[in-house]
Amino acid sequence: MANVVVKELVPPQVVAAMMYEAPALTTTSIQAATFFNGTAGTVTVQAGITANGVALAAGVNMLLSVAVLAGASYVCYELINQKIPPGYQLRCAGAGCIFGAGGVEVSGQ
Predict the structure, then answer these.
(1) Residue 49 pLDDT > 90
(2) Cα–Cα separations (whole angstroms), residue 36 to 54, 72, 79, 107
(3) Can you give the pTM of this predicted structure?
(4) Cβ count near 47 (within 10 Å)
(5) Cβ atoms within 10 Å, residue 35
(6) What's the rounded Cα separation, in Å, for the pair 91 and 79?
(7) How far apart are CA 96 and CA 14, in angstroms?
(8) What is the 3-class SS of the chain, one letter each residue?
(9) How far apart are CA 34 and CA 37, in angstroms?
(10) What percentage of the chain carries pLDDT values higher than 70?
(11) What mean pLDDT do residues 78-107 have?
């Protein structure tokens, strides 16, 4: 029987390279994700799903790369309903920005 947990995957926090890693034997589905740019200038934000420790790369595993204006938010529709396999990571880039995400973890399948 599957165990389903709805949770805040990434509490709002300053962007770091690795933001979330799916636990062993658990598949995660992203249901919401947002960047906020609180800096004084435009920042390009990026996000993608990678194998453990693999860097983001355009055309390989990067799902979004968007310029966010100062003081603006960006709802990451590109991440909604994306699945993160066990041991894979949600990775982000965006100097000085805040990122948060919510979703569902399904284990015991």
Answers:
(1) yes
(2) 24, 6, 15, 31
(3) 0.93
(4) 27
(5) 24
(6) 11
(7) 6
(8) CCEEEEEEEEEEEECCCEEEECCCCEEEEEEEEEEECCCCCCEEEEEEEECCCCCCCCCCCEEEEEEECCCCEEECCCCCCCEECCCCEEEEECCCCEEEEEEEEEECC
(9) 10
(10) 99
(11) 97
Which residue, among 59, 108, 61, has the nearest Cα to 84 in the 3D structure? 61
Place of tokens 């983001």: 56
Structure tokens at 17: 């390279």
Residue type, 49: I
Residue 3 corresponds to which amino acid? N
